[in-house]
Every structure is written in structure tokens, then in C-alpha cells.
Specification:
heterodimer, A: alpha+beta, three-stranded antiparallel sheet, 3 helices, 3 strands, about 45% helix, elongated, B: about 325 residues, mainly alpha
Chain lengths: ~80, ~325
């Protein structure tokens, strides 16, 4: 999703995935992906007008994109690797 | 204005690592707040409620996932000696607790069997265990600490963990005394009494829930001019405050054990000292129960008397700490 779309925050990803991603696990998954270098995150520049914590926005890295491409190719050859 | 998640965030910070806060908890709270603010602007009340429920469920799930690593983090950097001392203390207390609980249960168990009743083992356990716990837990906390810390160095983090465990024990005991003991006690009395009569036993002070106990005491106090009513009020007030005082006993006995464990005396002194302290506590409780009840119709007097055994334990703990802190004379040169 992050490769196809622009940078997104967690709940946008949950909505865009058609609920295949869950609220409770999306940030844990994103944190793990960030630790592995697949995605990069930043806190949004303009905090919400009503106050509150600024959101964290995620974007795929070049390494993450390359990895996804490689994974897709493998998945085409070996069906067991398909998501 | 307080936003959803604002109060939960400081609590989460205590449980989670800074990395987990930054990468998981804060983004979840930020999303919750943004979604909630958007729903408020649109005036969608039902959606606002749903966002709150879903958001807090997500947060509680995430926090629950962080608890094991928080517990592991607590014990990181502990030395083998500290680990060993804590395990010895907790295991020692657990073994003694089970042994003492079974010993306390033995007498009523035999009594039930003597009447050839049809009580099942599960039923007896269900009814007798809650009653045995308040008697067994405080002395086993003391014995566990003395056993676990014998010839061990007391480090602040071991002390903190033991105090925290004892505090949890006290809370569990409060729950047991407040909600489990009264119905268990009454069920056991009914069962024993049924073997000689068909009637049910009326509830006594020990069989009343905490709230009812205090209500009845206040009701009886209204007629305190009458000596009989004053006696009833005094007995009920004392029973109420005794239960609260007894719930604090595991924590106080653990503190006494930690104070006594600082002394490098032989095992014999502690083996004699611990039962003596328990006996003194039980004797004071017993003595408190024999004070003229009408004098306790004033709730403050009942409170002071019920907490007297605990106060004596606190004073003993403070005395031991004061003696231990006193500068020792330098060892004589040979």
C-alpha cells in the first residue's frame, strides 16, 4: 500500500487495506518494518488544529520498494510465497 | 480540555519503553485523537462513542503486549544473588503458605467428615480456602522473607520487589476478606448446622459483607444510648475495622521481615523470633476482641483498637531499623 500510495498514517492504512490490517497490529507491524529499514516514518509537520499529539506518517524506503519487487517476482515463481 | 488517551499516556509511559511509546503507543493515541476530533466536528455522536471504544480496546491490547517486556526489563541487570534471594523468598513464602493453609483447613475438614456429610472435596476447598488465606498469608510473608533473605545482602531493588509483592498480597487479601470470606463462612456454617437442624444459621458479623457490616453498625449506633445497642454497634465497628486492618497485615509482616533480615543473627534467633511476633500479633487480636464492646460504639475507638496489632508491628519494625542504623562499636583488636 505504501509503495502504491503516497505517505500514509496508520489508520489510513487500515482503511485502505479494506480492514485486512487491524488497528491493534498496524503500528507494531510498521515499527518492525521501520526497524528493518523497509519504511521510514516522520511526525507530521503541522499538529492537528484542535491540539493533541501529531500523527506519525509512514513512507516506503527505496530498499523496501526493491524488496517488495523481489518478493513479488519470487511469489510469481513460487506460489507458496504469495501473500 | 482533556483529549482521549491523555490520561492513559503517562500510565503507558511507565509500562512501555521509550521506543515502544514513540513507535506504537503515541501514533495510536494520535490517531484516536484525530479521529475523535473529526467525529466531534461532524457532530456524529454514535461514531464518537465507537471511536472511543475501538481506540481504547486497541490501546489496552497494545499495553497488554508490552507487559511481558516491562516485567523482563524490571529484572534486567539483576545479579545472580539478587535473583536467587528473590526466588528463595517467594518460593519459601509460597510453600509455607500452602502448608499453613492446609493445616488451618484440616480441623474444619475433619469436623465435616466426622458428621459423614456428603460435601465434595471441591466444595470444601471452595468454602475453606478463602477463610484460611487471611490467617495463613501474613505469617508466611514474614517467614518467607526471613528464609529467603537469610545470609543474603538486601539490595534496594530486591526490597522494592518484595514490598510490591506483599502489597499485591494485601490487595488480594482485602478482596478475599471483603467478598469471598463472608459467603464462604456462611455456606460452611449452614452446611454444618444442617446436619443437626433444618433451619439456616443467621449471619453473624463475620458473615456480613463489608458494606452491610458498616451500615448495620451505623444503624445500631443510632440507639447507642441503650447499652445492648451500643455493644452491637461496637462489635460491628470492630469487626469492620479489623477486616481492613487484617488486609494490611501481609505488607506489614513483609516489612517486619525485611527489617529483621538486616541483622546478621543466626537462623535460630529468627526461627524463634518470627513465631513470637506472630503469636504476639494473634494475642493482641484476641485481646482486642475481648474489650468491652459498648466502649467501641464510637467508631474512632473501634478503629484505633482494630489497628493496634498492626501499630505494634510497625513499631517493632521501626525499632529494629533504628537499632540497625545505630553506629556499631569498632571491632576489638586482638
Amino acid at each position: 500500500l505504501l509503495v502504491r500510495e503516497k505517505a500514509m498514517y496508520g489508520l489510513e492504512l487500515v482503511a485502505a487495506s479494506g480492514r485486512r490490517l487491524k488497528r491493534g497490529t498496524v503500528y507494531v507491524t510498521l515499527a518492525r518494518m521501520e526497524a528493518k529499514g523497509y519504511v521510514v516514518s516522520r511526525v507530521e509537520r503541522h499538529p492537528p488544529p484542535g491540539g493533541g499529539l501529531p500523527r506519525r506518517i509512514y513512507e516506503a524506503t527505496a530498499f523496501g520498494r526493491r524488496l517488495l519487487r523481489a518478493w513479488s517476482q519470487i511469489a510469481r515463481l513460487v506460489p507458496e510465497f504469495a501473500p | 480540555m482533556t483529549r482521549p488517551g491523555d490520561r492513559l499516556r503517562p500510565v503507558a509511559r511507565r509500562v512501555c519503553s521509550p521506543l515502544a511509546m514513540e513507535s506504537v503507543i503515541d501514533p495510536t493515541i494520535a490517531d484516536l485523537q484525530s479521529e475523535y476530533a473529526a467525529a466531534t466536528e461532524e457532530g456524529r455522536r454514535a461514531r464518537r462513542v465507537w471511536i472511543l471504544i475501538a481506540g481504547y480496546l486497541t490501546l489496552s491490547k497494545l499495553l497488554a503486549l508490552q507487559v511481558p517486556s516491562a516485567i523482563r526489563g524490571t529484572f534486567e541487570g539483576w545479579t545472580r544473588w539478587e535473583d536467587g534471594a528473590l526466588v528463595r523468598t517467594l518460593m519459601g513464602a509460597a510453600v509455607m503458605f500452602v502448608a499453613l493453609t492446609l493445616t488451618i483447613m484440616a480441623s474444619p475438614w475433619l469436623q465435616v467428615h466426622r458428621t459423614r456429610s456428603s460435601a465434595s472435596v471441591a466444595w470444601l476447598l471452595l468454602v475453606l480456602v478463602p477463610q484460611a488465606v487471611p490467617i495463613a498469608l501474613p505469617p508466611t510473608m514474614l517467614a518467607g522473607v526471613l528464609y529467603g533473605m537469610h545470609k543474603r545482602v538486601l539490595t534496594p531493588r530486591v526490597c522494592r520487589t518484595i514490598v510490591l509483592s506483599a502489597f499485591v498480597g494485601s490487595l488480594a487479601m482485602l478482596g478475599d476478606i471483603a467478598w469471598a470470606v463472608p459467603p464462604a463462612n456462611q455456606a460452611f456454617r449452614n452446611h454444618v448446622f444442617r446436619s443437626v437442624s433444618v433451619a439456616r444459621m443467621p449471619r453473624g458479623p463475620a458473615e456480613l459483607p463489608l458494606s452491610t457490616l458498616r451500615q448495620q453498625a451505623l444503624f445500631a449506633k443510632q440507639g447507642a444510648a441503650d447499652v445492648r445497642a451500643a455493644r452491637i454497634a461496637g462489635r460491628l465497628f470492630l469487626a469492620f475495622h479489623e477486616r481492613l486492618a487484617l488486609a494490611a497485615a501481609p505488607l506489614l509482616f513483609a516489612l517486619l521481615g525485611l527489617a529483621a533480615a538486616r541483622f546478621r543473627t543466626g537462623a535460630g534467633v529468627k526461627t524463634v523470633g518470627a513465631p513470637l511476633a506472630c503469636a504476639a500479633y494473634v494475642y493482641t487480636l484476641f485481646w482486642v476482641g475481648h474489650v468491652e464492646a459498648s466502649a467501641l460504639a464510637d467508631e474512632r475507638a473501634a478503629f484505633a483498637l482494630a489497628w493496634l496489632p498492626n501499630v505494634s508491628i510497625i513499631l517493632t519494625t521501626l525499632t529494629l531499623l533504628a537499632i540497625h542504623r545505630r553506629p556499631q562499636p569498632p571491632p576489638e583488636c586482638a
